[in-house]
Amino acid sequence: MRTHPYAEAVYEVVSLDADGFGVKVSLPDVSPTLVSGFETAAAAEAWIASHKSRVQEQSQAKKVFRRSAPTATTH
Q1: Is the separation of the CB atoms in 32 and 21 below 8 Å?
Q2: Per-residue pLDDT at 65 exceeds 50
Q3: Percent of the chain having pLDDT more than 70?
Q4: Is residue 48 part of a domain?
Q5: Has residue 69 been placed in a domain?
């Protein structure tokens, strides 16, 4: 089973001068991404917690489904 792409993400709240705050999301072997538009550091922290929770839920919800062999139908 594959791991969620964000399972190993590192999150960092950053100040964006007069534009509030952002979250720098870093993944292994990928350039960091900036999520912006947070008025406060607390709002950015709340987004991080929410994102981590979604990633965890999606990781646990994934199951491997296998197609079963066709069954004979009677008419």
Answers
A1: no
A2: no
A3: 77
A4: yes
A5: no
Decide if 66 contacts 15 (C-beta within 8 A): no
d(CA 10, CA 1): 22
Residue 26 lies in a domain: yes
Count of domains for the chain = 1
Give the chain's count of helices (H) and strands (E).
Answer: 1, 3
What HEC string does 54-65 produce? HHHHHHHHCCCC
Structure confidence by residue, pLDDT tens digits, 17-51: 888 999 999 998 889 999 999 999 999 999 999 99
pTM of the model: 0.73
Q: What burial letters (b/e) apply to 22-61, b meaning 16+ CB within 10 Å?
A: bbebeeeeeeeeebeebeeeeebeebbeebeeebeeeeee
For residue 5, being part of any structural domain is answered with no
**Residue 40 sits in which domain range?**
10-56
